[in-house]
């Protein structure tokens, strides 16, 4: 009986490890979200391997344990690939950015979210699914005199970018063919330093291959931008998803690792980061934190500070 249980568990565990390991063979869209949980699943597989070995100590159980540990190790290595380092700096930040998907049905917390945004001391605010803030826009615009989005009523209020500094340029665009106007490209003047600001809200990766098409369009948009750049938004995938990895490498984007977990809310710090703030040199993050309260959203918000490397390229952005 013990042998039967042993081999049944081994079979199930082998299939599970093989599914997660498919990332090394193919970036199949249906499994893309599974790939985001590689480290978490690796921990589960280690626990399952130990159960298998407790039932019967045979070589195959140790092979499964080794494979599970390798999945965890490689997941951690992949996360650190896009790290800015320790993020420490003695220089005061050039600006602060908040990015928050407030959830499109989060009407009952709209007042608290508005108050939080105004009290945040952020120079730039990127709000996604901002429809619940429709009746608080004038209050927000008093605190943030420059904005992009939510100009034509609640039915078109999705992405809202707020700024205390004037925009040098601004554009609302689309990625892919599923949803419109979820890409904002702007430049902001910070006392003579021009920063490229990009907001993006990607489709869930298991919605066919729509996210791949969106990443292709986003890559083209970022590829045409020179100079310091910050990209923030809801990617619906972690940084170790193969498609996101390829995008970050191509665009030379960095963040601070470990990134704060932003989803699912119930998992707290044990969740994964699917909301991101990235920077491209000569712009660098010096801090990246999760907001203390999700205020009814199914995502946690992020706030980040930035410095501009005076030893790098500081010519005005295009």
Automatic annotation (TrEMBL):
Keyword Transmembrane appears in the UniProt entry: yes
SUPFAM superfamilies reported in the protein's UniProt record: DNase I-like
Keywords: Endonuclease, Exonuclease, Hydrolase, Membrane, Nuclease, Transmembrane, Transmembrane helix
Record domain Endonuclease/exonuclease/phosphatase: where: 98-299
One of the protein's GO biological processes: GPI anchor biosynthetic process
GO cellular component: membrane
Signal peptide: none
InterPro entries referenced in this protein's UniProt entry, alphabetically: Endo/exonu/phosph_ase_sf, Endo/exonuclease/phosphatase, GPI-anchor_lipid_remodeler
Bilayer-spanning residue ranges: 5-22, 28-52, 59-79
Pfam families with a match to the protein in the record: Exo_endo_phos
Name this protein carries in UniProt: Endonuclease/exonuclease/phosphatase (EEP) superfamily protein YafD
Organism for this UniProt entry: Rhizobium esperanzae
């Amino acid at each position: 009986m013990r042998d039967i249980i042993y081999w049944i568990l081994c079979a199930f565990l082998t299939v599970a490890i093989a599914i997660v390991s498919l990332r090394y063979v193919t970036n199949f869209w249906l499994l893309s979200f599974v790939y985001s949980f590689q480290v978490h699943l690796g921990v589960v597989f280690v626990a399952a391997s130990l159960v298998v070995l407790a039932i019967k100590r045979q070589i195959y159980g140790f092979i499964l344990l080794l494979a599970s540990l390798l999945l965890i190790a490689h997941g951690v290595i992949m996360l650190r690939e896009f790290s800015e380092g320790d993020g420490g700096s003695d220089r005061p930040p050039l600006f602060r950015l908040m990015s928050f998907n407030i959830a499109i049905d989060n009407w009952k917390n709209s007042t608290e979210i508005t108050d939080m945004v105004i009290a945040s001391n952020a120079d730039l605010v990127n709000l996604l699914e901002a429809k619940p803030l429709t009746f608080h826009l004038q209050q927000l615009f008093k605190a943030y005199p420059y904005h992009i989005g939510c100009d034509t009523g609640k039915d078109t209020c999705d992405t809202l970018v707020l700024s205390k500094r004037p925009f040098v340029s601004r554009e609302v665009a689309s990625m892919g063919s599923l949803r419109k106007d979820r890409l904002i490209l702007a430049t902001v003047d910070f006392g003579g330093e021009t920063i490229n600001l990009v907001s993006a809200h990607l489709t869930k990766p298991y919605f066919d291959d729509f996210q791949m098409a969106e990443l292709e369009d986003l890559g083209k948009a970022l590829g045409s931008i020179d100079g310091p750049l910050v990209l923030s938004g809801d990617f619906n995938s972690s940084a170790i998803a193969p498609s996101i990895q390829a995008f970050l490498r191509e665009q030379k984007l960095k963040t601070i690792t470990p990134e704060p977990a932003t989803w699912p809310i119930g998992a707290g710090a044990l969740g994964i980061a699917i909301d991101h703030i990235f920077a491209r040199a000569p712009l660098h993050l010096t801090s990246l934190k999760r907001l203390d309260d999700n205020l009814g959203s199914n995502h946690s918000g992020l706030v980040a500070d930035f410095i501009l490397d005076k030893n790098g390229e500081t010519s005005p952005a295009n």
